[in-house]
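quick q for whoever's on today - can somebody do inverse folding on this one?? i tried earlier but teh output was garbage lol. tokens:
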């Protein structure tokens, strides 16, 4: 299985039949979303950027910090503290069904989610 079996969807979008296992990859539960409506199968909080990194990134609204954010988040994902959550996500993807990463962020392309998808693809190739 590759990263093509990992989808991304906002939690506010309706669930689709092809979502497979839905994994919330936000630290906080999304505002205004009932747990039964979200249909989340796993909530892997340990895959999210640290509070410090997230705060640092959001201090600058110009968007110039994204490349540095990506580098710092990759470093966090490689830390042993994240190993169990990374391993769980990789095993979900490897198990064969589609996996959909679910998030509440508005600007997905400039969030932690594409970095996480890339990290999972890397782990699948090298484990």
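ok took a stab at it. sequence:
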């Amino acid at each position: 299985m590759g990263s093509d079996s990992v989808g991304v969807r906002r939690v506010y979008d309706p669930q689709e039949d092809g979502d497979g296992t839905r994994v919330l990859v936000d630290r906080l539960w999304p505002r205004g979303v009932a747990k039964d409506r979200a249909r989340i199968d796993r909530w892997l909080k340990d895959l999210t950027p640290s509070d410090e990194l997230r705060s640092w990134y959001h201090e600058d609204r110009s968007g110039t910090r994204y490349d540095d954010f990506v580098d710092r988040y990759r470093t966090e994902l490689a830390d042993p503290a994240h190993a169990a959550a990374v391993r769980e996500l990789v095993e979900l993807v490897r198990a064969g069904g589609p996996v959909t990463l679910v998030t509440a962020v508005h600007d997905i392309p400039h969030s932690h989610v594409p970095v996480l998808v890339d990290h999972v693809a890397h782990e699948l190739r090298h484990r």
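fwiw The helical segments are 35-38, 51-59, 66-78, 83-94, 112-126. also Residues 112-126 form the longest helix (15 residues). so keep that in mind when u check it
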